[in-house]
Amino acid sequence: MMKAAAISGVKQIQIVDVPMPVIGPRDVLLKIKSAGLCTWEQRIYTGQAKSDYPLVGGHENAGEIAAIGELVTNVKVGDRVTMGSSSCGTCRACLRGQDKGCAEHFLNFSLKGGFYGPGGFAEYKIHRSDGVFPVGNAPWDQAALAEPLSCAIHAARLLDARLGDTAVVFGAGTMGLLNLMVLKKSGLRVAVVDVNEARLAKATSLGADLVLQAGPDIRDRVKAAFLGGVDFSIAAYGSEEVNQDALDVLNTRGKICLFASAHPVTPFAIDPNLMHNRETSAVGVVSADRRDHAVATDLIATGQIDLSPIVDATFPLIEAAAAFERATSSPSYRVMLHP
Ligand SMILES: [Zn+2]
Prior knowledge:
single chain, Quinone Oxidoreductase, Chain A, domain 1, Rossmann fold, 7-stranded mixed beta sheet, 6-stranded parallel beta sheet, 11 helices, 15 strands, about 30% helix, binds zinc ion, oxidoreductase, ADH-like_N, zinc, oxidoreductase activity
């Protein structure tokens, strides 16, 4: 048996004993070293998002390989790895390099044995071997953030963001900041918009060229700062108002990136003539292809990106209830569990 932290209801966390997972021929058994509390799990904890209970969350993980299946050749016992998605390698989506669309994409993020969820808030986890990526000697908490970092890398790739381009990121929470860091590394001039001054100060410390407090005249202030508009706007906070602002501040041929989900969701209107005349594109982004996870892991492993400012606090697994309370108080960045 092993310990796991389960969300057993709204604002309820229980430490439970669950059976050790059974390893298959293509699987690895991971001893979890760090796990981030993602926004999705925080929303399930607060009741903002619906879920079946009990749920063992945890899909932002890093750990050490404790055992490997008989067919595994890419890693060995003792390797330090990040954990990403899987892919079959042969379906149409995989062959087109779009394995986000593969039926096996979320294969590693399910948990058997009476619990629903990705299963990373536990002492051990089974992962198929194609979903683990060696991370060298990187600190565990930063390694665990390869998964959210991969989502920001995925966004920059789908937007085709390049040196000299401009962007505005709406929302300076964890995902907004990771988008900022990736876009700055890609050579863009980036502004960050948020209501919260402390979050904006954090964005400045992470390299934002400009921070703007959200307000009624935000569209004019963005356009004034970027001579008529930006190439990309990232909606890293899900609201109708943000989506409308993000669409309005684009220049001709600009792209809006719908990065955040909203709970509850409010649809927003798109003027087809405006999209037509300005050649605007809308790009939805969630999760990442495996290649994005590989890039994220390499950036962390080689120290090319420092994610330590994103780590807000760490708690032992058995104090998961306190960790969830910390993560759902504002403003906080990533709270990490250490089994
Ligand atoms: Zn596939």
